[in-house]
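User: Hey, my collaborator sent me this sequence without any context and asked if I could get a structure. I don't really work with proteins. Can you help?
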Amino acid sequence: MYVFLSAVSDFVAPQLEMLKLYHHESIEEFDSFGDYNMSKHLTLFGGSAPSLTRLVLSGVPVDWNQPWITSASNLTDLKLAFHLEFVCPSWVQFASILRGASALEKLSLCFSGPRDSPEWLIEPTPGSPADLDAPVQLLRVTKFTFAYHSQARAIGLLRKFYLPALKNLVLDFGHNGDYTELVHELAGPTTSLSLPFVEEQPRSLLSKLESLKIAGLPCRIKCILTLYGGLQDLTLLHLLLSYLTSFFLDILCTPCKLAGRGDVWLPRLATLYISGTFREQLRELVQKRRDAGVPLSSLYVKESCELEKEDVVWLKQNLKTFEYRGRRNW
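Assistant: No problem. I've predicted the 3D structure and written it out in structure-token form, which is a compact way to encode the shape of the chain:
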């Protein structure tokens, strides 16, 4: 990787549109990126990559102050992944990158982001620099992938982001710990802007979501009710049930008893993706949602689900789209 970074140092790349760099090591070895201190002095692409639209840095740190990344005004897709604390950008550097990417539409933070620091983890205090307290305006971001952060860090980041256009959310926090407070943060009033003559109605990030993927979200059962209760506009749900309680699926064919939320959970849900093991209740799920007047139209099932042939035939007959990729492909 150092050889590559050296090769593109001071190398003009006016037509470069996509850069994806991966340092594949186990998580215990990420801190052994031995050439990091040497690579910090390298100025990639002569400091400018004006056509860059997609950037992935997975386990690969760079000098976060360089203009090719802090002034990427055409960047639409940014993924930062697997950066240990000592190679992460500071909050000021991180915020500068996001604020410089005015065209950003997709953001993925997977075990990466700003270094933990009191300057952004604590609540704003009177007299602190305004640029640190002000939320980062991600006005065009429609998809946000959020993975492998502690609950405190995840909540702290959410409170620093203004995401008015968010439609697609991916959550993956493994299967350990308790992310109950994060669910409440997602369901509560989202970060808003305090601007003259602008009054925003309090709403949650969940309220405008159209697509949600949950690959890992350890929390209490009541929190699943809170989560689903806020997803009134959701049309697509993807559940990785190998790391989730089956209640995430079971609830979809039970009556909703939350006040003001109608008679069924996720009333606009049309497409369901399921991967991982789960109890075989798909026919019941499809039948009950159809009987409730909120039928599924598409169902995609993957991985280690042993469906009988008659179940597959029935599901194909009762859904507009049904795809099954299990150990048996009828």
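In plain terms: Residues 1-124+131-166 form one domain. You can pass these tokens on to your collaborator as they are.
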